[in-house]
């Protein structure tokens, strides 16, 4: 495990920028928001993480305990799993205070994987992947028939001879 300390998100503008990207995953123990660092003014290129707990979590003691648990999770998981060049905000929920630590670890790993912002999700996709079989992604030209099929476009009907 990498023992380098995580950079912290401290400015309100950074928290608002991450929330504004609307990329989040909710688990029973925590909420994870993620955003790339483009336009943030941060040139460190590492992983930055912020922590927050609202009064819905409980009083000051409960909020502080929840944030301590989130910081411990981030120190343990983020250096190995989080994708470089992204900012993350971990939001405590009322269950964060009492949830078993191993389940919180599972929650964080699940959220990062589902958001596709892990180092593992950056690996190139195999040729057998479902997304590689049919339409090209992100509005790119389809070299087989010359038509653009991106987000929002309807796929054209293709008839191909499969004699191989």
Describe the structure.
- The protein is built from four helices and five strands, in the order βαβββαβαα.
- It is of the alpha/beta class and 164 residues long.
- Helix 2 links the parallel strand 4 and strand 5.
- The longest helix is centred in the middle third of the chain and has 22 residues.
- The radius of gyration is 20 Å and the shape is globular.
Helix/strand layout:
Blueprint: E1 7-8, H1 12-20, E2 24-26, E3 30-36, E4 48-52, H2 60-81, E5 86-92, H3 101-115, H4 130-133
Parallel strand pairs: 1-4, 4-5
Antiparallel strand pairs: 2-3, 3-5
Number of strands: 5
Uncertain segments are 122-145, 147-162
Average pLDDT number: 77
Please give the radius of gyration in angstroms: 20 Å
Proportion of residues in helical segments? 25-40%
Order of helices and strands: EHEEEHEHH
Distance between the termini: 48 Å
The major β-sheet equals: 5 strands, mixed
How many helices? The count is 4
| Structural class by helix and strand composition | alpha/beta
Main sheet strand line-up: 1-4-5-3-2
Overall 3D form: globular
